[in-house]
Amino acid sequence: MLKQKHFLLAIAAAIVIYSCAPKPYADTNKVYKTQAKSYASNLKEIPTVEGNDSIKMPDYFVGTTNFSMRKPNFVIIHHTAQNTCDQTLKTFTLTRTQTSAHYVICRDGVIHHMLNDYMRAHHAGLSKWGNVTDMNSCSIGIELDNNGFESFSDAQINSLISLLGKLKKDYNVPTANFIGHGDIAPTRKNDPSILFPWKKLADKGFGLWYDEVRDTIPANFSYLQALRIVGYDTRDTTAAIRSFKRHFMQDSTKRINDADKNVLNNLMKKY
After folding, report:
1. Which of 151, 181, 216, 229 is the most buried if burial means most Cβ atoms within 10 Å?
2. pLDDT tier for residue 10 given thresholds of 50, 70 and 90
3. CATH topology for the 70-209 domain
4. What is the pLDDT of residue 244?
5. b/e map of 217-241 (b: 16 or more CB within 10 Å)?
C-alpha cells in the first residue's frame, strides 16, 4: 500500500513538473492547432458547385464512398543554411518568413515533426522535377540543421535514415523519389551540399545511385537528354549540370566531362 502511495505521488509530481516545464512555442502551437482545425472543418463540409444559369444543379448530394487522403510521392532533403536548430525552428514559426518543412533534424539527431505529412509545407518553392512543377503539393520536406559548409553528423544521418524508412513504408515512396532541394531548384538552391552522403542513403534504398562497373558511352549519347530523363530541368544547362554533379559526383564544378557522362549514361537507364 505504501509503495502504491509513493508511486501515485511520483506520478503526480511528474504531471506537475511537466505542466510547469517551459513551452517556448506555446503561442505558435496555438496558431498551428487553429489552422489545422480550420482545414478539418473544410473537409467535413459537403462539396457543392456554385450554380448559375448555365449550370444545371442536382436535386440532392451524392458523395462517393471511394476516396482516401492525398499522399506524398516525393521526399525532398534540404540543409537549413542556418547555425542552430533553434534558429531554424524560430524561422519556421514566424508567419512573415512563409517557409516551413515537415521535419527538422538537429545535429544531435533530434527530429522535430513540425507539420502533418498530409499537409502542404512551403519548402520547395519555385521548382521542377520531370513534369512536376508544384513539388510542395506532392512532397515531404526534411531540413537538416547544417550551415552548408560542414559535415553532417552521424547522429543526424542515422535519424534521417530511420525517418526515411518510415516514410517510404507509410507512403510507398518510390526509391527514385528521394532527392535534394538543389535537384529540383538548380538555379536557386545548392542544398544539401556536396558533403551530404547520398550514396549511403541509396545503399539503404533511398534514392538511386550509379553502378561501379558501367558501359562505355554510346556515340549518340546526349547528356542533356539524359539529364531530362533523370528529372532535371535543363532550361538552364549550366545549373542542371552543376546540380547533377553536386548530387552524384560530390563535385561543385559546372563543366561536364567524360567521367560525368559515363555516370549519367548509367543512371539514365535506372529512371
Report:
1. 181
2. low
3. Lysozyme-like (3.40.80)
4. 98
5. beeeeebeebbbbbbbbbeeeebbb
Q: What is the structure's pLDDT at 22?
A: 63
pTM of model > 0.85: yes
C-alpha span between 182 and 241 (Å, rounded): 11
The Cα 101–Cα 82 span in angstroms is: 14
Structural contact between residues 163 and 103, judged by C-beta atoms closer than 8 angstroms = yes
Q: How far apart are alpha carbons 54 and 52 in whole angstroms?
A: 5
pLDDT of residue 16: 44
The residues, ordered by sequence, that sit 6+ positions from 213 with a Cβ below 8 Å of its Cβ are none
Crossing angle of helices 223-230/258-268, nearest 10°? 40
Q: Where are the domains of the chain?
A: 70-209, 210-271
Give pLDDT, residue 202.
98
- The chain-wide mean pLDDT, for the chain, equals 91
Q: Minimal CA–CA distance to 114: which of 42, 201, 28?
A: 28
Beta carbons within 8 Å of 194's beta carbon, 6+ residues apart:
246, 250, 251, 252
How does pLDDT run across 194-244, given as a tens digit for each residue?
A: 999 999 999 999 999 999 999 999 999 999 999 999 999 999 999 999 999
> Which three three-digit cell numbers place residue 162?
530511420
